[in-house]
Specification:
Helix content of chain B: under 10%
Number of strands of chain A: 11
Number of strands of chain B: 11
Largest sheet of chain B: 7 strands, mixed
Oligomer: heterodimer
Strand content of chain A: over 45%
Shape of chain B: globular
Largest interface: A-B, 23 and 22 residues
Strand content of chain B: over 45%
Shape of chain A: globular
Number of helices of chain B: 0
Order of helices and strands of chain A: EEEEEEEEEEE
Radius of gyration of chain A: 13 Å
Distance between the termini of chain B: 36 Å
Structural class of chain A: mainly beta
Distance between the termini of chain A: 36 Å
Number of helices of chain A: 0
Helix content of chain A: under 10%
Structural class of chain B: mainly beta
Chain lengths: 106, 117
């Protein structure tokens, strides 16, 4: 099973600050997907196929990476971006998620 | 509008069984792989099981193999999760999820709570 390690576990950013969340895979994966989850709510698809924004996601978000290293970037942090973000991969008929990055506003 | 509505959760004793259902609407259910994903209280997301469009292929995480069974009824647009021999560590919110190309989730249900105690 491929293990996904996210970093940081938690972080706080000021409005307007650039934010980068990293997801490292224990073996190479073809694509990485990301979800946003707010307290008490279901996760939402956020970025799929490494760099494609899901419907309704602001374009201040972007995704990149390849092989074992992927990232989600917010070009300019906004209050509404406060949430937990999870990366996810699929291989060998198994989905695995990262442990999540809790992002807060300063 | 795509909707996934889970039901069947509740409080159950260790060793007992529970069956979750997920009623799908707003799309052609039989065209999509489906999955169950769970989240223990204050914890992260954990994939539980997946099923192919026709139900012929099913996949499970190791910790539920032999205890859980994922199935679907395409005529009823409903996904199921039969959970047997439940353990305290199965306590979680269970989400029904749609897999557009089998490898990521584009729609999630609202979740149903299962408490094993």
């Amino acid at each position: 099973e491929i293990v996904l390690t996210q970093s940081p576990t938690t972080m706080a950013a000021s409005p307007g600050e650039k934010v980068t969340i990293t997801c490292r895979a224990s073996s190479s994966v073809s694509y990485m997907h990301w979800y946003q989850q707010k307290p008490g709510a279901s996760p939402k698809p956020w970025i799929y196929d490494t760099s494609k924004l899901a419907s309704g996601v602001p374009n201040r978000f972007s995704g990149s990476g390849s092989g074992t290293s992927y990232s989600l970037t917010i070009s300019s942090m906004e209050t509404e971006d406060t949430a937990t973000y999870y990366c996810q991969q699929w291989s060998s008929n198994s989905l695995t998620f990262g442990s999540g990055t809790k992002l807060e506003i300063k | 509008e795509v909707q996934l509505v889970e039901s069947g959760g509740g409080l159950v004793q260790p060793g007992r069984s529970l069956k979750l259902s997920c009623a799908a609407s707003g799309f052609t259910f039989s065209n999509y792989d489906m999955a169950w994903v769970r989240q223990a209280p204050t914890k992260g997301l954990e994939w539980v099981a997946s099923i192919s469009t026709g139900g012929g292929n099913t996949y499970y995480r190791d910790s539920v193999k032999g205890r859980f069974t994922i199935s679907r009824d395409n005529a009823k647009s409903t996904l199921y999760l039969q959970m047997d021999s439940l353990r305290s560590e199965d306590t979680a919110t269970y989400y029904c999820a749609r897999l557009p190309w089998g490898d990521w989730i584009d729609y999630w249900g609202q979740g149903v709570m299962v408490t094993v105690s």
